[in-house]
Amino acid sequence: MFQGLCTLYAFCFKQTAKVIRNLPSYYIIAYHYIAQGKLRDDVRGLVTRPMVAVKNADYKELTGARLKQLRVWIVEKYLDFVESIWPCYCRTIRFLKRANLI
Predict the structure, then answer these.
(1) What PANTHER family has UniProt attached to this entry (predicted)?
(2) Which of the two residues, 54 and 36, has the higher pLDDT score?
(3) Which distant-in-sequence residues (6+ apart) come within 8 Å of 39 by Cβ?
(4) Does the model's pTM come out above 0.85?
């Protein structure tokens, strides 16, 4: 257990040293990203636009579309269920015909 802890400590130390060595390049990348306005554009694209889209959403239309999707999903699940039972149903009918019960 002591050996495992020492190995984990050495691994963490190596990773920290690697990050510290690369810190100047990370700083340069972040500086150019912020200075060129890409950060502002990304915030607009990922935060502001979705909020505006939610505010402008037509809830009746959205609910109708979701209900249509739900109906399609239910029909697909029902057909899957019927198709999975169909062989048992056919065998049962065949058995009842042979036994002269139908």
Answers:
(1) ABC TRANSMEMBRANE TYPE-1 DOMAIN-CONTAINING PROTEIN, DEFECTIVE 2759, PUTATIVE ISOFORM 1-RELATED
(2) 36
(3) 33
(4) no
- CB-CB contact of 30 with 42 (8 Å): no
- Residue 86: C-alpha distances to residues 3, 81, 99 (Å): 61, 9, 20
- Contact at 8 Å (CB) between 58 and 67? no
Q: C-alpha angle 35/36/37, rounded to 5°?
A: 90
- Torsion, Cα of 26, 32, 38, 42 (10° steps): 20
Location of structure tokens 């149903």: 89
Domain ranges, ordered by start, for the chain:
1-57, 68-102
Predicted confidence at residue 72, as pLDDT, reads: 94
